[in-house]
């Protein structure tokens, strides 16, 4: 991937979107996702090369989601953007992206990869068609959107916006954390041979590398606990996102607590 600028993250209620070296996260306020308490809130963080770029992104986000929903955490730094970057980013931030839940839009050169969940096939095709139509013809759009599965909804409902707790700075589950995992394991047992990905997340305190390692270790701890409860370890994968996918502002203790979480995603 091109190193044009540092990571830029936008958080909506339920989907992650990465642009070039920019990462944008959209989140639909479904009540089934363990994220910020304000429904529909948009949190945008990262670094852009100048105030003009910052204003352009914020203006577009406010147009789409409403000025009262956008929380600005963008900084301006010594980074360089590719030609026409502002134009393409603004074209990608459209109302139709609000239909995508828990997804990622990533631009690597002229290749656009889009994945996430939508309600039906019509939405799936409409979103990809709009993206392709707004980009230069030289761009290639890979459609990885999928229809929302009811099994995922049941899993999200079981978690019910709760955070799986660990001992501070460690990968040891607390009694409360184990209690939640007992409920999650029971729900996974109902899904039989369905595969699941366990994703660990942290706040942004300390070194990023240490946080990524901690998030991975916590995801592995959950997998081990599930194995003890009879979940086939072959059906479980793990990953550690560290602080890269916040669901709330890291400026407050409450926000950091929300970001220290475990995410469960059913996979094919």
SSE layout and pairings?
Blueprint: E1 8-11, E2 13-19, E3 22-27, E4 42-48, H1 51-65, E5 70-76, H2 85-92, E6 101-108, E7 111-118, H3 121-134, E8 140-147, H4 150-159, H5 175-190, E9 195-201, H6 208-228, E10 236-242, H7 253-259, E11 262-267
Helix pairs in contact: 4-5
What brief labels describe this structure?
268 residues, three-stranded mixed sheet, 60s Ribosomal Protein L30, Chain: A, hypothetical protein tt1634, alpha/beta, globular
Alpha-carbon distance between the two ends: 26 Å
Rg on CA atoms, Å: 18 Å
CATH fold description of the largest domain: hypothetical protein tt1634
Mean pLDDT across residues = 77
Strand arrangement, major sheet: 1-4-5
Principal-axis shape equals globular
- SS class: alpha/beta
Total domains, how many?
2
CATH architecture of the largest domain: 3-Layer(aba) Sandwich
Q: Sketch the major β-sheet.
A: 3 strands, mixed
Helical content (DSSP H or I, runs of 4+): 25-40%
Order of helices and strands: EEEEHEHEEHEHHEHEHE
Low-confidence stretches: 1-39
CATH C-level label of the largest domain: Alpha Beta
Number of strands: 11
Give the count of helical stretches. Answer: 7
Percent range for β-strand residues? 25-35%
